[in-house]
Amino acid sequence: MTITNEISNRQLEIIEVSGKILIEKGIKGLTTKTVASEMNFSESAIYRHFKSKEEILIALLSLLKQNMNKRLTSEIKPQNTAAENFKAVFTSQFNYFKKNPHFVVAVLSDGLLDESKEIKTIILQLMQNKMQLLGQILEQGKQTNEFNTEISTEDLLPIILGSFRFQMLKWKLSNFQYDITTEGNKTINNLLALIQK
Amino acid sequence: MTITNEISNRQLEIIEVSGKILIEKGIKGLTTKTVASEMNFSESAIYRHFKSKEEILIALLSLLKQNMNKRLTSEIKPQNTAAENFKAVFTSQFNYFKKNPHFVVAVLSDGLLDESKEIKTIILQLMQNKMQLLGQILEQGKQTNEFNTEISTEDLLPIILGSFRFQMLKWKLSNFQYDITTEGNKTINNLLALIQK
DNA sequence: CTTTGTAGTGTGAATATTCACTAACCTATG
DNA sequence: CATAGGTTAGTGAATATTCACACTACAAAG
Questions:
Q1: What fold is seen in the domain B61-195?
Q2: CA–C1' gap, A47 and D27, in angstroms
Q3: pTM exceeds 0.90
């Protein structure tokens, strides 16, 4: 366990393994035993890399938050139409989760919510960041007269975000068996159809 | 513990207490100890009323399923407009959860999903029932030319249900501090504005 | 080149705690 | 007097965490 803020390769492995366990067996299945077993080393070895189990979850969520912010921010380009930006953001999300389904936990992280104050904070930040980003795009669309102005951005956001979350939940319930990118694209277009003029 | 299918008063108490614990402390907080403590009797007394902890959860979800079906079905009236039916169904939901916030678990039951096969099945049924009911209303609205036909009912359902779920999540995250019926009404109107002609 | 210190990473055994659940017993009431 | 519903006092299993110990790589020192 190094003192730096950097994440070591071993830590990253543990995070990924934890995410995998989380979606396969749920929060109850994530124990020091299962993590150690999946890592092919003993339980005590975990503590060479993380102070506690909670720290693993915190690291996982922090990583995702960081990644998501960087990734999504880079997708938004002022020269593009709001619809294009809207599509780009969600396409990026769906592609990312297709490659890293073990991070879907973070979207459906209600189960983790009650874990600790710190975890709750990160999850809330994750939501707020996404809301803020989406809010920008919606405002852009209203100003450029692409989107309907009848419904306030504030009211539109939970509808869009809720749809996204629900889609992810369905995907998880199917055990990730269908292609989330094609299904996701359908939803993107449907949502756009609803809010476009 | 009687042999009948009826739920005794004591069982109902336990179910309600469990629901309360579930939203306050999450699935991890729901233990024989916390239930017993909230009931003001010993842990072993629980087993006079339920065979296992899982049975409590199953009873809770079954009760809600039964209740929701009955309640929502009675709200749909063919002589009413689709918009009226739509409103009636959601108003009923919001009113019900306002009075029984401890049952919000069932809407946000992601955490329970991994508990057991049987529990997962009931939760899925709960979702499907609601989808089916809402689907009827949407179809009615399309036939009477009230609703937009651009987006298929199938595609519309997850958007509406996702919005509802997200609204409930926000409410829970706020610790049920605001009035869900007024906030809910806003969402109902917004959704209607989106799908109406 | 060899010794030696040290940081990093692993192990197995032991720990206290918590969990769901059970057994034996008590007692009021119909 | 049987039964429903409560009690106390356990049970074994699982859990997160700690500890003493061992091995390795490698850099500094002699």
A1: Tetracycline Repressor; domain 2 (1.10.357)
A2: 26
A3: yes
